[in-house]
Amino acid sequence: xxxxxxxxxxxxxxxxxxxxxxxxxxxxxxxxxxxxxxxxxxxxxxxxxxxxxxxxxxxxxxxxxxxxxxxxxxxxxxxxxxxxxxxxxxxxxxxxxxxxxxxxxxxxxxxxxxxxxxxxxxxxxxxxxxxxxxxxxxxxxxxxxxxxxxxxxxxxxxxxxxxxxxxxxxxxxxxxxxxxxxxxxxxxxxxxxxxxxxxxxxxxxxxxxxxxxxxxxxxxxxxxxxxxxxxxxxxxxxxxxxxxxxxxxxxxxxxxxxxxxxxxxxxxxxxxxxxxxxxxxxxxxxxxxxxxxxxxxxxxxxxxxxxxxxxxxxxxxxxxxxxxxxxxxxxxxxxxxxxxxxxxxxxxxxxxxxxxxxxxxxxxxxxxxxxxxxxxxxxxxxxxxxxxxxxxxxxxxxxxxxxxxxxxxxxxxxxxxxxxxxxxxxxxxxxxxxxxxxxxxxxxxxxxxxxxxxxxxxxxxxxxxxxxxxxxxxxxxxxxxxxxxxxxxxxxxxxxxxxxxxxxxxxxxxxxxxxxxxxxxxxxxxxxxxxxxxxxxxxxxxxxxxxxxxxxxxxxxxxxxxxxxxxxxxxxxxxxxxxxxx
Length: 582
Description:
The chain has helices spanning 2-5, 15-39, 43-46, 49-52, 60-76, 90-102, 114-148, 193-199, 216-226, 239-250, 268-280, 283-300, 314-326, 368-376, 422-436, 454-460, 477-481, 494-500, 532-543, 547-564, 570-574, and strands at 166-174, 204-210, 230-231, 302-309, 331-335, 362-365, 384-386, 412-417, 442-446, 470-472, 486-489, 505-508, 526-529. The chain has three domains: 2-102, no CATH class; 139-263 and 278-346, Rossmann fold (3-Layer(aba) Sandwich), CATH 3.40.50; 412-564, Glycogen Phosphorylase B (Rossmann fold), CATH 3.40.50. The protein has 582 residues and is α/β, with parallel strands linked by helices. It has a seven-stranded parallel sheet. A six-stranded parallel sheet has the order 10-9-8-11-12-13, sandwiched between helices.
């Protein structure tokens, strides 16, 4: 587009305006979703991506910010020449056009023909049907795999599935990291919690959720060989359940409608677009099956407590709703296992939603810092408990030591951890390639998020092949950090791990997405930049410091790690044991 317009036209950066706009609209959007949610209160609403507000799933908030940024640019540049806005989303474009008409601003809109829009409708139906077929086949394969490997509807624990014991179910994500070389199971997300509860005499079973793109059959086989009490959700799904939910998900649950305006902006086209994407994708079927799964469990076991990783995803709310329905005596505990930025909107709910949205009895935070963050943003204190970072219980125990200097001709070793979201991941990869690929001064290791295939990010970035000094690694982050001079990231929790290992961190600010960095409020622990030259300069600066400066930085880093990810103690486990009176 820039080449087509010519060199005489100026490209405007919206990075700073976008981030400022996102911060200013944050609470308004949360409250808005809460208000309209009360009016539309239903299970379909609570399980939808609009109610979820997850920036990795729904673009509703980002697109609203785009409209606000466009409105600001149009007002600021009146009389300053022609402003060309390049907009990919039809919903955003229509919202901007509505704003310009409402404010009597002159504009020309280039839009698709009616034929093109008709073809888009056909394409959406074809995509929806293809996704349903894929989802149905994938779910059927998982049902068959679970049964073929001998997993019952109840708990596989070497005893009867109809055990009279009152079980604690620990819902945890499973992939290759979940097993020691010996084959022993280890919980990546809850650390020692399962073993500690067992020592106290509680029967604990793992609800094994296999991470997407992981080898399902192989991991189920390893779970069975591990000998731990385990329950596989797909083992409880019948063919009738699958067909029923598949046909139900074919019907759009939300019709196009007029939505209330937000901060004076017309948002109907944006929100209708989000709800239509919900229908096209496979998420409705997965969440609807959870009620069937929990109903079968409760016929085979006595459920005492259900513990899960708290991020307020749709699947979490589906479990909360199903357990309230099928096992009303059971307690629900969400564990905030990772870092949280205020811009991770899915973690937060509005005052209007309390008592209506499916929610756990208790949310256990991993530090006093996050406890206060949730409390400041409206969480009632009776649902909050301050715990410790079970997932990172061994992080930062190494003694502080200076990292080897890299100024004697050695190449600077850079670890890059792209985002779980495709757009910022591709944006960071493009910046890294431009900054470091043509220089012999740097060695770059790229560690993609386990839920985001590296091939997809590379394709989205328009990169045909990586230079010799850029490599993709599948090694564990802990191993990579031991051989790293500097970390470049956008929003990854790996930044906290890097601080614990004494590795300096550089934050690359996105020009296209809201900033989700959990370390934004901590001064002196990161360098932030949003340009290619700034990235290259920042790397050179942070690795070329004297010994005293390095040690001071290391101490500050370790302090921040202990603030954000507090070490757990014996009382942390107590928070996961609720009495009936709690």
